[in-house]
């Protein structure tokens, strides 16, 4: 199998791998009748719920407009509770997305009984696919960590870093690593999330076996914890621009699955056209048609709200429902392991 080629240090990054060395044995995915490699692009807005998406939509496109993520043909909802709490953290939510298993808050791709879980990225590697991760926060932060490491606590960042080191990567492997800050990237992000996403796709798409790429808008969550509507909106709009990059690739590569979701909602964010007078109300913010709106908050922590999920491409129709966040993993797994498609369809139909 190809070796995951992301080096770790406490910075923000884009890490991708391409084809492994000629001396490595890979099991290839059989292409479809058109001979196209399969690809998965999973975009996670950390802390992004319906309120965040609505505020970004109104700011960028007015009430009747659409974000790129709104224009996707399939929409559903994901329930985000963890194994030990109705209100998840990013570690447990990310583990659900990356492994299809609910775990306790704080745990990184390990189940509540301390068993190591195989991530979708690791399944993709085993099938010979190229893999990549992109984020605007620390590379050992919870969401990117759940795809590439296994530790009982998200705060074991040094151990997370050690688990994705380059020691096992052959010298013939093609790879890219970008480190752009000591901790979270500072605004305005440079390079932008769009630039990191585009570069990752440009590199990964050369692999004839296909690829898996996770892109995280990591600081939406941070802004919402601070009840900072301006940055929450800006970061969501920037994240949506990265969604558009993924959509552009998928439009000419039909065997691509693009999924956009949040790991959870942060802040209990809501929008209104009129002032409510509530403490901490943000605004006014203007729409492109000059209408004004306001933002209110319920909390500075995560909430138990379901989050919207939109998708397009191969197997995306299976996401047209409300289900646990683990189901997103199930759908991605069907693309990576096509022989397992029937059981998922039966699950989807209630069989």
List keywords for this structure.
single chain; 351 residues; alpha/beta; Alkaline Phosphatase, subunit A; nine-stranded mixed beta sheet; three-stranded antiparallel beta sheet; 10 helices; 14 strands; 20% strand; globular; disordered N terminus; disordered C terminus
Q: What do you see in this structure?
A:
The structure is a single chain. The chain is of the alpha/beta class and about 350 residues long. The chain has a single domain, classed as 3-Layer(aba) Sandwich (Alkaline Phosphatase, subunit A). Helix content is about 30%, strand content about 20%. It has a 9-stranded mixed β-sheet with strand order 5-1-4-6-2-7-13-3-14, sandwiched between helices.
Nutshell version of this structure?
The chain is of the alpha/beta class. The protein has helices at 50-61, 90-99, 120-126, 142-148, 157-163, 193-204, 219-225, 229-252, 326-336, 341-348; strands at 13-17, 39-45, 74-79, 130-135, 175-179, 211-217, 256-262, 265-266, 270-272, 282-286, 292-296, 302-303, 307-313, 322-324. The chain has a single domain (39-164, 181-348), classed as 3-Layer(aba) Sandwich (Alkaline Phosphatase, subunit A).
């Amino acid at each position: 199998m190809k070796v995951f080629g992301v080096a770790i240090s406490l910075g923000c990054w884009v890490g991708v791998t391409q084809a492994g060395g000629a001396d490595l044995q890979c099991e290839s995915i059989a292409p479809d009748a058109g001979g196209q490699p399969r690809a998965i692009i999973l975009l996670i807005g950390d802390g992004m719920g319906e309120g965040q998406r609505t505020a970004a939509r109104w700011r960028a496109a007015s009430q009747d407009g659409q974000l790129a993520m709104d224009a996707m043909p399939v929409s559903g909802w994901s329930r985000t509770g963890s194994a030990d709490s109705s209100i998840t953290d990013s570690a447990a939510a990310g583990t659900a997305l990356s492994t299809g298993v609910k775990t306790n808050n704080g745990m990184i791709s390990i189940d509540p009984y301390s068993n190591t879980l195989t991530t979708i990225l690791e399944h993709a590697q085993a099938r010979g696919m190229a893999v990549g991760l992109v984020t605007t926060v620390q590379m050992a932060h919870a969401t990117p960590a759940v795809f590439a490491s296994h530790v009982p606590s998200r705060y074991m960042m040094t151990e997370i870093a050690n688990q994705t080191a380059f020691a096992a990567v052959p010298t013939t492997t093609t790879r890219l690593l970008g480190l752009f800050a000591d901790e979270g990237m500072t605004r305005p992000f440079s390079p932008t999330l769009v630039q990191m996403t585009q570069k990752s796709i440009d590199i990964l798409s050369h692999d004839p076996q296909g690829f898996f790429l996770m892109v995280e808008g990591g600081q939406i969550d941070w802004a919402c914890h601070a009840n900072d509507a301006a940055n929450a909106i800006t970061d969501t709009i920037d994240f949506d621009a990265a969604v558009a990059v993924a959509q552009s690739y998928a439009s000419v590569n039909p065997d691509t699955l693009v999924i956009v979701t949040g790991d959870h909602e942060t802040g209990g964010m809501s929008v209104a056209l009129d002032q409510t007078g509530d403490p901490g109300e943000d605004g006014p913010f203007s729409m492109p048609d000059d209408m004004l709106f306001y933002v209110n908050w319920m909390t500075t922590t995560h909430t138990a709200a379901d989050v919207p999920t939109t998708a397009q491409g191969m197997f995306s129709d299976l996401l047209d429902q409300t289900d646990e966040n683990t189901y997103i993993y199930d759908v991605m797994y069907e693309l990576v392991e096509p022989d397992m498609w029937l059981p998922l369809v039966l699950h989807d139909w209630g069989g």
